[in-house]
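[job 4417] fold queue: 2 targets
>>> target A
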Amino acid sequence: MLLAGIQLVIAQKSDPTLASVRGQLIRAASGKILVGANDGSVVGFDSASQAFEFRYVGTGDGPVVDLCYYSGRPWWTRTKSRIVNTVELKTGKPITYDMEAFGMKGAIKRIGVFFGYILVSGDSESFVIDPGVATVMPLKDVLPANVWQRVQFGTVVSTWYRNKKGRAEGSLVSVVRVAQRDKPDAKTGLKEVAQFNAWSTGFGKNGKETYTNLGGPTAKYVQFDEVEGPRVQFKLGAMDVDLPYAAARLDNVLISSEGIVSIDEDVIHVAPVSEKGWVPEDIVPGIPPRRAQLAAAFGANLWMFRDGKLMNVSLEDGSTDVYVPMGKAPTVVALAADEEGAWMLTDQGVISATTDLPTVAGAMKFLQYEAGAKTTKPKSADAIRLGKAIDRVKAGSVKLTGAGIEPIRQLFKEASLPYKPENFARTKALEKVDELRYGDLVQEGSVTRLYVGNGTSVQWVDGKLMPMPLSAGADTRVLRLLSNTPPVTRPVYNGGYGEYDADPQRFKFGGERGSIKFDPRSPYDKPFDDRTRAMKAEMESWLGVPYRMGGNGRSGIDCSGFVQKVYSTLGIRLPRHSQDMKSYGRSGGDSLRYGDVIVIRKPNRHVMIYVGNGQIFEATPSEVQITRNLGRSYREGWVRRFL
């Protein structure tokens, strides 16, 4: 049944801004930031410019509980509602679907896209809306019988998109409770055992829908709630499953077209949906994730918010960047992620920690550091000397005296570093801290601490160097007295990847503020020898190959796998992980040439190959393609030359 009752609101005198919007849900889709507001409306902003685009007010009570964006319009539902809201694409005319009229008994819990349908799911019921003809059907009516036989027993999640060539593809994932243990798990406290089942979906050459059963792993980190539904009865290997129906809570599980990311106590389970019989790979981040429920993923980047900190975890190698709010941390309600980085929906509006645009809500500033035990090991010559002096103080062979900054000056003197008062006085605080380094001075009011890596600073207290967790107030300042010059002696063995650079120069990309240049008139801005011509042919052979998290072949590949494969055909061996590539090859200075490898650190970890005239060959989150993504002014990273 279609109902009227949704209001389109556009071009108000006082349009919402990222700073003013409040809600419970945020999504990033199709270059837009969508906020499910507390008043039940959906507010849309352009992700790149942060400009307001639309606001739609739907039928029902309470805030928005879920939404998706498909065919140029949002689809959403409100708390404890059986109503799906959307608008007519061309005219903005309101459209409302009352799912109770089609047999839905409970409230809607999830809305997604599947095979061009809108998938609407409750705790134990799923329906699809066909937007083209405005009809509603039970999910059972559109699935093959063998797929429905398993899907009917659990929570259903779908993903769907059209790649650059217009091919539609996605995945269908069901999460079913298959066992209950007598005793809860020692770490999670959960008794349930879940099984994930995935199907790769798309259209065959004859235009018919295809379903490829990929199987799936069992898991002990999913929580279930028993609800009304069909009894779960089927055979799983040698085990007969016979349990009451239960709906899965997926707060700590992210399901996308790339795969399943499950956030456990100490590790992150990554299961790429790319081939049959996939097995989760355990990623150990720099900070234990503790089943974080505020999370979002984009490509190989997992963003989490926990204990007042925003974290970006690489799903390649677990390396973790941490953003500490300077001042009172906002109350974060939800997270979203896209190519612009992470977006936090908070009680202060929508905040981004990773863009440089001046319109970011609240003008929130952050201190950033890399987490992990390896960051406590000094790398530069100055930092190594300072670290040895700290070790001597801890061992008791060196005594420090005084209070405030005086013991820090004595420590610098012991390390043969600039220690006189004028050295500290004339050092200006950094205007922007891209990343804290070992040996930075963190000043908060009258207190000065020394940063020693992994989110830890030390302060001289009661005759001891006391380690303390890093904190940041609104008046926190960072002083950097140490140079980042690498030590004279470097490791002889460096993995066989060619020249090693302990401190590669970091650049900004794009726009007037960028420090990297390219010249389309240069003979080096296009293939200039046999190797670059061979590289061009190899890259073009990968065009259209779908992106797969952790993928390394023609059926699916990720960004670092693509760069590694291309260079391997030239006889050049590169590391598998994107961020490791920055330390090898040579620096090309500030001028790009064809074949240069660009390693991006912010806002999302990424790697790509420059192919002239400002263009990039890369494995994007949809597929391998040529883009002009070099021009994004906020990007920071490294340029490495192997040819």
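>>> target B
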Amino acid sequence: MNEVSHQVTARPKILVVDDRQENLFAMATLLKPLDAEVLTGLSGNQALSQVLRHRFALILMDVQMPEMDGFETVSLIQEYAQSSHVPIIFVTAMNKEGEYISKGYQLGAVDYLFKPVNPDILQSKVKVFLDLYREKATVDKVLHELKHAQTELEHNHQELEDAHHQVAMSKAYVDNIIKSMNDTLVVIDADMTIRVINQATLALLGFEEQELIGQHTRLIFGEELIQGTFIEELLKDGSMCALESTYMTKDHRTIPVAFSGAVLMDDQGHFQGIVCVAQDITKRKQAEEELRKAHDVLELRVHERTAKLEEANSLLMSEIAERKRAEEDIRNLNTDLMRGKAELEVSNKELEAFSYSVAHDLRAPLRGIDGFCQAVWEDSRHTLDPTSQRYLQRAREASQRMAKQIDALLNLARLSRTELEVEAVDLTTLAQSVLTDLQSAEPERQVEWTVAEGLRAIGDTSLVRVALENLLGNAWKFTSQVESARIELGMSQHTSNPVYFVHDNGTGFDMAYADKLFMAFQRLHGLSEFPCLGIGLATVQRIIRLHNGRIWAESAVGDGATFFFTFENEDESGIHVACANS
């Protein structure tokens, strides 16, 4: 039995690679019903060893592995001729960002699944590739037999006709396999005309085969596939998976489906058509709708329960005789509130840690970009035309500006982990020091600034200085286009607690965008007009909140801006500190 015939008759092999033995066992168990031999590897090296010894129909590759990750392993697998065309599906519980998914497809992956894997989806996708592998093996066998028959043509013309007959039978066999698949399958040519359609598609849409063969895909494909970027992205990437769209039935109903596609190319690399495989997700959509309704019901119940609690608290105030029961309810409520506060603190810490990690990881590629641009500038700037030199400098400036933004983001993330060293803070002295530094940095500017005497508060001196540097720095920057610039730090007594303010007569802003004012990287003015990192006011808000205070602003375009802020910390005597002379 030759190698081609052996591929047709032997059970197809699937390679599962994961650095955890329990994951390998789970995958093997899920794939057992698919009539395939499942081989495993605990590392990239074991996977390469298996590829050298076996011919696989499909590889399921974990991304996160020690020593050699899934991307590196796939790159090496692609270098072997016998494994370069093996379809690869990445399976991972991490790296859901678009850049990692795109990297997987660029390496030649045909799909990307996230853990925990849905067993039905996994089995359906694997079965499609097993069917295609068997079909390819069958076609290879037929081609092999045709080649052998061609060499015998001069000896026996009858054998040639028998071979042609065998080809026709094999083609019919392949067609039957396609038409018997459980998932819908449609093959279209370069003109978007339907050429092959299986029985599952016909049954789902209610058409007869002769009604669709030779027709344009707009007859059954949803508008998002015809007018969207599905075809364009397929031609660019070679494959796509899990795009949610719709099928149109014969009676004009729409059926939600999850599309996967692969481009068909001839031996010369010319586009021939597209294989589209789709799965009916009607039940999943219904489940999502039921979940949404259940969530709405839960929200209603929570609202009703909150109303009942408020009513109970009112009764507790009027029914002195039930004091013990009321006290118990209050204790229970306090316990729930403390638990909620603890959970909120944990969530905030996790979010801050994630932001810190992402910002930290972005610094390395930015240093690389800046370094390479610097190297090109030093080595080749004399050979570059002025336009190229300007582009190179702009690339360096952009990478350096991004690095500064990342540093600012890291500093913002660190604020939430900062332990406050609470003490009496002399706001007047701090503000005068900051404004003096600003004046020294730009001695040519004429700015009239005023700081009220005796402003004091309770807080962390270093953090309060950072807040004042940002607020006064903004006032200094946004008055740069005003002839008679004025900046003032003062205090007003709106309530029992002092309210401090920083006022300037600068360019101001539109209050319609005030909700974006304290959001990171949200700028209300163009970078060319007022260069900034977009993180200053977010930092100020974080510092004020650490002091249990609040901050808000009032402004009008061309009429300056006023930022109000409070500190709610208390001194050791429990008295709010405002002004020493108040």
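[job 4417] complete. Note on B: Residues 323-380 form the longest helix (58 residues).
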